[in-house]
Amino acid sequence: MTAPPLLTVRNLRVTYPAAQGDIHAVRNVSFTLARERLGIVGESGSGKSTLGRAIMGLVPRPGRVAADELRLGAIDLRNLGESGFRRLRGRRIAMVLQDPKFALNPVMSVGHQIAETHRAHVRGSARAARRAALEMLHAVRIRDPERVFGLYPHQVSGGMGQRVMIAMMLIADPEVLIADEPTSALDATVQTQVLAILDELVRGRGMGLILISHNLPLVASFCDRVLVMYSGRVVETCGAGALRQARHPYTRGLLASLPELDHRRDVLPQLQRDPAWAEGA
Amino acid sequence: MSAVRRVLRTLFSVVLTFLGLTMVTFFIGRVIPIDPVLAIVGPKASVETYARVRAEIGLDLPLPVQYWRYLTRVLHGDFGTSVITSQPVLQDMLNVFPATLELALLALFIGVALGVPLGVVSATQRGRWPDHLIRLVSLFGYSMPVFWLGLVGLLLFYAKLGWVAGPGRIDVGYEDLVPTVTGLLTVDALLDGNRDVFINAVQHLVLPASILGYLSLAYIARMTRSFMLGQLRQEYILAALAKGLRPARVVWVHALGNAWVQLITVIALTFGSLLEGAVLTETVFSWPGLGLYMKNSLFNADLNAVLGGTMLVGFVYILLNLVSDLLYPLVDPRARSRA
Lengths: 281, 339
Description:
A: alpha/beta
């Protein structure tokens, strides 16, 4: 018997009303997440970030979220309300954003920002929160936590900033983490380090991870399963190892567009986009 | 950049701005359609007397020489003598400036203490009725002439309702009861422990300060709203929400904490414009401050006093810029590490 899923999503829809008719950013997306690493790939505008935000209850007005089922463990997220969501965010489900340069508050020290998550969810003194933040900095392999605690975001490098971001989001022990392009803003060498830290923490804590990325090889190598999104809809779900055998023409098109080291190609294949895919054909 | 270089650079720009200011006031003194000689000798003086006085005050010398003399005098704190009061202009200004300062400080306090929260609420309630209401209130404050507001305020709160005292800084019966220490009457009354004088001074102060405060509130609320809208769109706001902070904390600590960086300049400039705006308010309220002094000097062709007052206001602007430069590092760690 399999364990109950951490996250259940059935027919999730996100719509933005517009003068020319509603814009469907996410259309009838369904999946479940266990203690695993699920990748969501797709091009810009495919709705993958909106999907992550909808699960967090962070779709800005006037966007509307609807679903046949949207549960975090046993909690129904559909009619939770702002204060209900607030208690879950950071504590049960958290989100790492793309670029620490913009996602960290520039006028607050990084240590303070990490401790703040702790204080929002855990009863205790400021000193306890500080101690927890220092431990968390250590956990994301920052060598001199005491010194880094007092630094401001502009004083840390991109890789260190993203580790701070991870520390800030994991300090209250959530069971689900949505990582929205967590390494896209980083240099290639730093990407690997940050992913390794993310992997270690997610595995060690037995969390479920949703990795949102446009980077197919990264998702294929890092995740257990992959959802491919196109125009707000999931067009393909497969095991990460089986990505090469993907059947959907969009996925095949994405794969064919990847550069290969031992292959010289003068013309990149044109990526096909069929509006019918968005309608679920 | 080292701290020493930063200070030196700031001082250099202060000196440069000050020189520019003296040139502007000097230039105004040349082009203004007031004949300073005529103001001294009067219209019935003979041509010889006119020429003698003209030479005495150095108006027959070449312009650069005149400017140099003017600059030297200014640097020695000599702004000449006022024709009306027969006192050195500097002495006059030191007498009247505290009254204006008292008014402007309270007005600024009102403007910041109410304007910033109103701007924040307006931004977070964007497009809903609190936003519309706040924008309407600040648009009104922005558009109404200050003398009109002053007159209506006097009519309503003094003449009809009797909630506040009338024009002037204090009732005649309370004049000169407390020794002048700071020049701010309310503070001096407190220092002296004289409760009656304090209450009377506050009753006189509250209406003009509220009206000036309303003007700065209107501007500060507008700017706060627009800065906050800019901040609330930032990614770090999304991150702060994603970690489960209360929306109030996200707005008032995270977004406003960043908006202060921009607000400092706005507040400093508001303070400067309060000193200017005092000319009209002080006239309406017979407030014996710099504004009233300058108005009287202008109407009596008292050129030295006008130029001295202009110089003082300009100098306060320079100081305000300096202060806001020094305040930046307090709210923005990025400015700290650049120092």
